[in-house]
Amino acid sequence: MIVSLTWVLGGALILVLLTVFLWSARNKQKKPIPRHVPMVSREEFAEELAIPVTFPPQPAAKPEMPVIPWNYGKDRITLMVRDPNWIFAYWEISATKQEEFRSTFGQDAWNNSRSVLRVYDITGVESFNGANANDFTDISIDDFVDSWHIDMERPNTTFCVDLGRLFPDGTFITLLRSNIVQTPSIAVSNLLDEEWMWIEGIYRTLTRLHMGSSPMITEEIGKGMGLIPLGMSSPGLGNRNN
Q1: Helix (H, G, I), strand (E, B) or coil at 2
Q2: Cβ neighbours for 217, distance < 8 A, ≥ 6 positions apart
Q3: For residues 45 and 157, what is the distance between their CA atoms, to the nearest angstrom?
Q4: Whether 161 contacts 89, CB under 8 Å
Q5: C-alpha count within 13 angstroms, C-beta hemisphere, residue 28
Q6: What average pLDDT does the chain have?
């Protein structure tokens, strides 16, 4: 009886000690919160710790550059002057124009003919109709080219160019006709400017005008003030009426 009571008391003591130990261990894990520190939620604490991330601005998209087409589907030839001796022609022949040529002269006509630039000298011709030129020059070209520099060595001459097909028998069929151009003279012009301005007298007297003022305006002011003689002509020409 005494032994049983001893075991019961020992077990109860052990249970009490174990309870006290667990309670102490649990209280040690909890950190006391200072009274002056307010309680915050986990969400608020996370928001305060979050580091703001900024992304660099994305570059604006470059506008698409327009694509220059190889052709425009228009039948045309343009003639330009390069200098007194050279002219320049560029053109475009559409597939429709080629089909019209085949339909008119036969399906093999295009292959049986060759491409030719016919350059007409129409200096002094009032109304050019293709048959009244002073003379013409034929230049054979490749079917795949679309421009040509033409060395005529004829200053002060009026030109027109036909792009066409030349058959073996000499028949020439015009496909396109250009505009009319005139090459400049290679000699010094014999035209003289007879309206000479009295520059020395203007800039010596009209001091209130800034340097670089328009000579025409200065001359008009000078004439109004009587500083420039009226009817001033080129030196040495004298009076035309004499």
Answers
A1: helix
A2: none
A3: 92
A4: yes
A5: 6
A6: 76
| Angle at alpha carbon of residue 89, lines to 88 and 90, rounded to 5° | 130
User: Residue 90 has which token pair?
Assistant: 């560029």
* CATH superfamily to which 76-182 belongs: Immunoglobulins (2.60.40.10)
Cα–Cα distance measured from residue 101 to residue 175, given in angstroms and rounded to the nearest whole number:
8
**Token couple for 162:** 């036909």
pLDDT at 234: 39
Phi, psi of 175 (to 5 degrees): -100, -45
Residue 210 has pLDDT above 50, yes or no: no
Closest of 103, 75, 30 to residue 178, by C-alpha: 75
Q: How many CB atoms lie within 10 A of CB 157?
A: 20
Chain segment 133-164, per-residue pLDDT in tens: 999 999 999 999 999 999 999 999 999 999 99
